[in-house]
Amino acid sequence: MFEETPQSPDDQPPGADAAPTGRLFGAEVNRDVPPAAPGEFGPLACGPHAIWPPVVLAPMAGVTNRAYRRLCNEYGAGICTSEMITARGYRMGNAMSRLLASGDEGEFRSVQVYGSDPLDVGEMVKSLVDDGVHHVDMNFGCPVPKVTRHGGGSAIPVKPRLLARLVRAAVRSAGDVPVTIKVRKGIDDSLITYRDSGEVAQEEGARWIALHARTAAELYSGEADWCAITDLKQRLSIPVLGNGDIWESWDALRMMRETGCDGVVIGRGCLGRPWLFAELRAVFEGREPEAPPTFGEIARVMDRHATALTEVFGEETGVHQMRKWCAWYTKGFHGSASIRGRLARMDSLDEMRTALAEIPEETPFPLHALRVNRAKRGGQQRVKLPEGYLDDRNDDTPPKSPHTPEELAAWEKALSGG
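The structure corresponding to this sequence follows.
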C-alpha cells in the first residue's frame, strides 16, 4: 500500500537549502504565516473530550500501530488513531485485528473501524466500548482496489442509505463513546459524494466528519481541494476536519484559516517525522517551532521506534516493518541513498545502527525534504466497483465482504500493505 516515491529529491549537497527570510525553518509558501493568536483556535470537541491541539494522526494501514502512536503521542498529537481494522476479522477473533486494536496503558484509545455490514460494525463497536476504547472512527475513504471492488471503503458513500445504516449501527452501539467518520470527496470528478456523507454523519449522530480533499481516483496525486473542506464546513453544524497536503505545521494553520475547519488530520506529512506534532503544538500555542532534529537525533528516534515495533510485533516482524520507516526517516539527507538499499534488506537492529552511523550526527535536516512525498504512490486510477454497483444508489444492501479465515487473512494483508 505504501512505496517509496522515486522522484523524491535525494542527496542534494549540503548547503542546498535556505529557509525563507524571517522564518527559522520552512518552505517559501509559508513565509508569512503567523503562529496562532491567543484564543484564535479552540480545542476539538470529541464527545466529552476536549482535544488539544486540534490535530489528529490519520489512521494509516501498516503505519499507525501502537509503536508509532506512542511516538506521536509523546510529541504532542491531539488524537492518535489506530490503523484500519476490519469489523468481521475483529468479531471472529483474528489475532492481528485484536493486536492492532490494542493500546498502551494510559493511552487515549482511538480505533478506526472498517466494515460494510451494519451487524459486524455494531458488534465490533460494542466490543471495543466494553474494552475501554475512548473514540471510534469509521473508514469510508479507503481507495484500495481490493476494497472498492467489493463495495467497501470509498465506495460506500456512493450509497447514502447504506452509509447511514453503518453509522447508525456504530453510534447506537457506542453509547456515550464518540463516533466519527472519514471520507474522500467522491469516486471521481463525475461522482462527488462528500456532501451526502456530511448530511448522513450529522443526521446519524457522528461527532465529526473528516474530509480528505481528493477523490478515490486521485489517490494521493495533485493538490488537495481545500475548497471542498470550506464547502462542507459551511453546510454542517457538526465539526469538520480537513485532511490533505499538510506537510508543515504552518500548512495546518493555513488550512484552518482558509477553510474554517475545526481541526486537521495529518497523514503522509508525518511519515518518518513524528516531531511534526511538536511543531504543530507550538504554532497552535502561538510559538515558532524549533528547527527539526539533526540526523543523529533522528537516528535515536529511529532506534526507539524500531525497538517499540519489535516489542509489539516480535523481533523478526518488527525489524521487517522498520525497513520502510528507514526510507522515510532518511529521505533527502545527503549520502542517505548509499545506505538505503542495505536498510531495505536489514534483518536486525544492529544492521540499522551500523548503517545509520555512516552519516554524520550533526547533519541538519534538509529543507527540501519537508514537502517530499515519503510514501503513497502518485498518479491516478480508475476506481474499481462491483458490477452493477451504480445501478441503484438507494440500495442499502451490504456488499459481500470476506467471511472465511483465509479470506480475512488475505484481506488484512492487502490493507496493511503486506
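The longest strand covers residues 135-140.
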